[in-house]
C-alpha cells in the first residue's frame, strides 16, 4: 500500500438518498437533526457527517468549476495515466499474475478510470485478462460513470452481488465492468489493483477530547430551540465509541496530553481491514490517494461550498464535509503482513513517475 497526500480538494463519496432541490435538502435535514437531538440528545459527528453527505452528493452538482471543488483527475488526463503506469509497474514486480481485478473505491465522475483504461490500451497489456469493479453506492454517480465509459446495453441486476454491469467501449478496451455497493461483494481469489482517489477523507469521523486521562466524545447539539443552529458539546458520560477507542493501543490516552482533541475514522479503519484481508489472501496492490498526515489527526473536520471553506455545522446537506486522513493509522490497521510505503507528497510522486516527460510527449 502506498499512501500519499494530495493538495487538491477532491472527494468521492457514496450516497443513496435523493432530494430534488437544495432548499428542500437543507430544510429536511436540519429538521431531521433538530428533531432527533430534541428526542434522543446530541448526535455524533460521524452521524452528522454520514447523513449530510448522503444528501449532499445527490442534491446538486458538486464537481467542477461550477460545483464546490475540482478533482485532480478532471484537471488533466495525465493524472489517471500516471496512476495506471504505476499500478502496472507494481504488478510487473509482483510477477504479472493473471487474471486481474481493477478496483476503484468511490469513482466519482468516472474520469480517472477513463484515463487509466485509455493508457492501458496503449500498452502491451491491452489484451490482459482483467475486469473492472467500481465500488459506488450512488445510483446517480454510477450512471454518470457508465455514460463516460461508453457502456452500451447496461445491465441492471440486483440478484447478483453487483447491481449493474456492462462493457466499456472499444476506446477503453472493451472490458467487463461491474458496480457494487460494498467491496465485500467483489469476487475473491483474483489478484487486485486497487485505487482509492480521495475516498477516505469523505468517510465519517468521530471527535474526542482527553479529559482527566480519559477520552470523552465531542458531540453535536442544538445551539438553542429558536435558531435551529448546531454546536459542539462534550459528552458528560462515556459513549460506545469512547469506550471502544480506549481499547485500541494506537489511541492510548497516555500518549496524548490532556485537553488534546483527536479525530478517529472508524469507518476508514474497517475499510482498510477489508482491503488488507483481500490483499493477504488473494494478492494485490493498493494505492491510497488523499490528503492528511502520518500521525493522529487533531482538528481537520471542515466544509467547502463554492470552492470556499465554510462552517461545517451550517446548512447540512448542502456543503461538502471532509476530514484529513491518518495514514499512520491506516498502515497500523493493515498490519505487519502488508508491505506499506508512504505517505509521499503528490508532486514528488508524479515527478518520480516522470509526468513532465509524459506531458512533453502528448
UniProtKB/TrEMBL annotation:
Cellular location(s): Mitochondrion
Stored SUPFAM superfamilies: S-adenosyl-L-methionine-dependent methyltransferases
Superkingdom classification of source: Eukaryota
EC number assigned by the record: 2.1.1.320
Coiled coil (UniProt feature): none
This protein's UniProt keywords: Methyltransferase, Mitochondrion, Transferase
Gene from which the chain derives: LOC112694608
Its job: Arginine methyltransferase involved in the assembly or stability of mitochondrial NADH:ubiquinone oxidoreductase complex (complex I).
InterPro entries for this protein: NDUFAF7, NDUFAF7_sf, SAM-dependent_MTases_sf
GO cellular component, one term: mitochondrion
Pfam families: Methyltransf_28 (PF02636)
UniProt protein name: Protein arginine methyltransferase NDUFAF7
UniProt GO MF annotations: protein-arginine omega-N symmetric methyltransferase activity
Catalytic activity: L-arginyl-[protein] + 2 S-adenosyl-L-methionine = N(omega),N(omega)'-dimethyl-L-arginyl-[protein] + 2 S-adenosyl-L-homocysteine + 2 H(+)
GO BP terms in the entry: methylation; mitochondrial respiratory chain complex I assembly
Family: Belongs to the NDUFAF7 family.
